[in-house]
Design brief:
This protein is an alpha+beta fold and about 210 residues long. Helices cover about 30% and strands about 15% of the residues. It has a four-stranded antiparallel β-sheet, sandwiched between helices.
């Protein structure tokens, strides 16, 4: 019995090291880009139908026009069920000072910046053995001037990511609960947010060979 407990403790310690190493890798990637990564409890992510409903009322320009927006992605209940499998969550935070909010309405560069960062962090998670990692980023997809026609595949399947709100996640609420300052409505700065969800591998990362 004592030996079994000892192995269990070693296993838990190994998993804690893996997660710590992953977080440090995230920070190393985000910091040079003037972004921040914040670990948040998965329990603080509470998908709600009322949040997803804002995609439709008033209707968002991406609703039923973008391949990674409602109603073309899983619904709130399906996402809630999937969320139970994730063991860790990380906010990706990028703050930009503004003079006029109108200046950002036709400038997608910052949204593209955080979308690329979320995609890169998801790849880092995969390379660390967390192969079921999933990234989300705010705003509709800005990778193409117009989404590919319904009968054609996505032009950027490895970069395009749904928004948290599309799954019913109030990402502003999650950020504020984590102590991230978010002005709403924005006045002096705008906070762009991404979210990474990570499943702990069934086996220790060191037990399997990953490329």
């Amino acid at each position: 019995m004592v030996a079994t407990e000892s192995k269990s403790e070693q296993h838990n310690a190994s998993r804690a090291r893996e997660t710590s190493n992953l977080f440090r890798a995230f920070e190393s990637e985000a910091s040079p880009r003037a972004a921040q990564v914040v670990a948040v409890p998965v329990e603080t992510i509470r998908p709600r139908h009322s949040v997803r409903l804002k995609c439709l009322i008033p209707v968002c320009e991406y609703y039923d026009a973008c391949k990674i927006c409602p109603p073309r992605i899983p619904g709130v209940e399906e996402f809630k069920a999937a969320l139970e499998d994730y063991s860790h969550a990380f906010l990706v935070v990028l703050r930009e000072s503004i003079v006029r909010i109108q200046d950002l309405r036709h400038n997608d560069s910052i949204e593209l910046k955080i979308a690329q960062l979320v995609s890169d962090l998801e790849l880092i998670a995969y390379q660390h053995g967390f192969y079921l990692a999933m990234g989300l980023t705010v705003g509709g997809c800005k990778l193409c001037p117009e989404c590919a026609p319904a009968d054609e595949p996505c032009r950027h399947p490895f970069k395009a990511r749904p928004s948290p709100e599309g799954f019913g996640i109030d990402i502003t609420e999650v950020a504020r609960e984590a102590g991230v300052p978010v002005e709403w409505p924005p006045k002096a700065f705008v906070t762009f947010l991404g979210l990474l969800l990570v499943c702990q591998p069934v086996l220790s990362v060191g037990s399997v060979l990953y490329n």
